[in-house]
Amino acid sequence: MALWRREHTGRPAPTGLIHHSDAGSQYTSIRYTDTLALEGLQPSIGSVGDAYDNAAAETVMGQFKNEAVAKDSPFSTGALKTETDVMEIVFEWVHWYNNERLHSALDHQTPEEHEQTYYDLQTGPSADDAANKQAA
Hints:
The protein is mainly alpha-helical. The chain is built from 7 helices and 2 strands. It has a domain at 1-50.
């Protein structure tokens, strides 16, 4: 999904981008590594038996548990009974996390704002941004 989103927002992933995962069988299959190669991604697999390389992912999962599925979560409207319930809460939280939640490590910007600033500095504002500024 992330690759699709980047491709459809005019910011394709650069060739050689590293895709890191744990050593789970789904990530070591031939089909999966072939797909990474087709997308121009470099596979990187963590070592078995330690979680040091998973610290960032574990942090995000902890935030998700505290912010999205805790009993007092603003995203939760009741028990998660169906797959659709789970999908809705995940998509709502990920959208909020990327587009509304301010991150201190990003100078109190959202990840989307931070990434847009990065690309503006690299290539100048996108045509969509220029059109939005003219319309405003």
